[in-house]
Amino acid sequence: MRDLKKIRDRAVLAAVKLVLEQLETADTLEAIPELRKLAGASGFYRIKVGDYRIGLSISDGVLECVRCLHRRDIYKRFP
What we know:
The chain has one domain (2-77): YaeB-like fold, CATH 3.30.2310.20. 29% of the residues lie in helices and 33% in strands. It is built from two helices and four strands. Keywords: Toxin-antitoxin system.
């Protein structure tokens, strides 16, 4: 994901990578911590990691990481 290259804070980057690993091992959406459905956007979710948000989409049962941006930018560029 190209957005990860722009994160300068190593602690935040490590936390984001940990969340991405949790996404790979989760069997259901309920097993993913801090996952919230976006209001007004069908099939889109977000996970908070400090001041950053990971934007996710789900279609045909496949969860895809779309964006990882600062909270001031994520809702302008996602979904």
